[in-house]
UniProtKB/TrEMBL annotation, chains A, B:
Pfam families from the UniProt entry: HTH_5
GO molecular function, one term: DNA-binding transcription factor activity
UniProt signal peptide: none
PANTHER family in alphabetical order: SLL0088 PROTEIN, TRANSCRIPTIONAL REGULATORY PROTEIN
Protein name: Transcriptional regulator, ArsR family
Top-level taxonomic group: Bacteria
Domain HTH arsR-type: 1-90
Gene3D superfamilies noted in UniProt: Winged helix-like DNA-binding domain superfamily/Winged helix DNA-binding domain
Length: 112, 112
DNA sequence: ATAATATGTAACATTTGTGTTACACAAATA
DNA sequence: TATTTGTGTAACACAAATGTTACATATTAT
């Protein structure tokens, strides 16, 4: 597929790509060192890195003929923003539960 | 594909499925009410909901012939745990930057 | 009892995503 | 300069994901 059609969510849907991100959270790595650690072909990894780069999860520093890959926060932020929306939902759910319990408590008190 | 092969990351990779989750963060909805709001077919939505349910993003309450869908935190937690790993990375990066700046500061002080 | 409603699912076509091999090229090394 | 190293990408095959239509079934309403 055309790389332009990928978004952050699709980018992290692939286990290989998540493994690449995990590796880069330990150390910066040049393209081929990443590929060496996988059992799939170098071109496949090259493409995965391209996807992660295009979606803002990876920065690439050109150093002679090498391309050093490192994490870029932008991609992660997109996911986190989305998660934050639902975080708010769970917090409001807890509040509703809390209110419910308090109401019940006062009813129970009346019964006694 | 077999639903058993889906994981949380793949579950939220599809825009329709993310839209379903967004809807359910506003209100609980029966299966068909969800489908009504999309321009794709009801069976397609049925499958999306099945995926979200299997991966722990949705709970389903059977109510007569209706199946009421609502959010379930479990799926979101899986994503958040993964995000937390990288959150730690960014914090440690900030610390490194901080240490670097402090070291530089003391060098600059010596120069003066 | 019949009809309408709310669903599930199989079969199939199509689209999308991933992997491979083969080839190209620039930078570093001998 | 010739070779090796680090990389990109096109072409293709295959696998996986998504959508559709058609049909089945259980519950509710008439």
């Amino acid at each position: 597929m055309n790389i332009a059609n990928y978004d952050s969510f699709l980018a992290i849907a692939d286990p290989h790509r998540r493994e690449i991100l995990m590796m880069l959270s330990k150390e910066k790595l040049p393209m081929n060192s990443i590929a060496d650690r996988f059992d799939i072909s170098r071109p496949a990894i090259s493409r995965h890195v391209r996807v992660l780069h295009a979606t803002g999860f990876i920065d690439i520093e050109e150093k002679g003929r090498e391309r050093i890959c490192m994490l870029n926060q932008a991609g992660f932020n997109e996911i986190q923003d989305w998660m934050d929306h639902f975080e708010k939902y769970w917090i409001s759910q807890l509040q509703s539960l809390d209110e419910f319990l308090k109401k019940n408590e006062s009813i129970n008190n009346k019964k006694e």
